[in-house]
Amino acid sequence: MCNLAVDIRHQRKGIATSLVYECERQVQEWYNKYNNYNYIINNDDDDDENKNRNKENDTTSISNSVCLKVRESNMAAIQMYLKLGYLTVWQEKEDNGNTILVMRKQLSSSAAAAAVAAADITTTTNNNNTARVVVS
Questions:
Q1: Which of 22, 91, 119, 120 has its CA 20 to 30 A from that of 14?
Q2: Contact 67, 86 (CB under 8 A)
Q3: Which tens digits make up the pLDDT trace of 12-24?
Q4: How far is CA 84 from CA 9, 39, 87, 106, 134, in A?
């Protein structure tokens, strides 16, 4: 997950939580599609032979987890991520001395279902696979 931000006028309304849930739902969907249904992932070659290849011959798989980075000074965001089940797995130091936390959440099928149920969102995808998220 990268560059999640909510305008200050709209913070503390559940928007960031809904966006995180939508990200988790999308990761779970990709995981189920590519790891459970014998699809393969090959961005270099889209020919029919490649699309129909059995997963057993492929070494590529999709992770069933979400990772993110957050500044250690951003306590509101850290508290939200902890509440949503993210754990700090690494720390990095920026050149300016700030500490960046790397957080990760391992998803499960029940977590994805809970995320979808909790988020009041609509997602549409255009032909370029760019998602537009509408939070109600």
A1: 91
A2: no
A3: 999 999 999 999 9
A4: 22, 30, 9, 11, 20
H-run or E-run covering 122: strand 121-125
Tokens found for residue 27:
């990761």
Distance separating alpha carbons of residues 72 and 100, to the nearest angstrom: 6
The Cα 79–Cα 94 span in angstroms is 21
According to DSSP, the residues that pair with 132 across neighbouring strands are 124
Mean pLDDT of 59-71: 85
Spell out the domain ranges in the chain: 9-64+107-136, 66-106
* pLDDT confidence bin for 77, thresholds 50/70/90: very high
The answer to whether the beta carbons of residues 66 and 107 sit under 8 Å apart is: yes
